[in-house]
Amino acid sequence: MNRFLIVAVVTAAALVGCRKSETGGNAGDDTFKVVVPTSTDVKQGEVQTIRVAVDRGAGFKRTVKLEVKAPKGLSVDPDSVTVKPGDKGDVQLAITAAKDAPLGDHKVMLKGTPDKGDAVELMFKVTVGVK
Q1: What does 39-105 look like in DSSP terms, one character per residue?
Q2: What is the DSSP letter of 26?
Q3: pTM of the shown model
Q4: Interval 45-81: pLDDT, tens
Q5: Is 89:66 a contact under the CB 8 Å cutoff?
Q6: In Å, how far are 2, 103, 112 from 120, measured between CA atoms?
Q7: Which residues, listed in sequence order, are joined to residue 129 by a DSSP beta bridge?
Q8: What is the distance between the alpha carbons of residues 116 and 93, in angstroms, rounded to a whole number?
Q9: The CATH number, out of the four listed (2.60.40.10, 3.20.20.70, 2.130.10.10, 3.40.50.150), of the domain defined by the range 20-129
């Protein structure tokens, strides 16, 4: 019983703070999802690195192109990256807030497009604070 409880707590903790996209690709296990943090904070003039992941179904063996669009005052590097079938699927993105970036919450759009099948889109929040 204690072992089950520990596994449940660890699993729940790992999922907190992440958002998964709708399913893309095709049907069955030939699908994928994109996982992003629900939100991140960055101060004006500074950089924050986040992890984005392509979560593949067992049968999904396609290349996925990730494209990021940030609002004025924020930039993301790289703003486009290709994740191939043999790749681990984790991508590090550097989010930079300009020195004069507007303070507050901003929505960043991420799109994952497979070389065949349905694309997925999702947003995550970036909160810009004073330096």
Answers
A1: EEEEETT-EEEEEEEEEE-TT----EEEEEE--TTEEEESSEEEE-TTS--EEEEEEEE-TTPPSEE
A2: S
A3: 0.80
A4: 999 999 999 999 889 999 999 999 999 999 999 999 9
A5: no
A6: 39, 28, 5
A7: 43
A8: 24
A9: 2.60.40.10
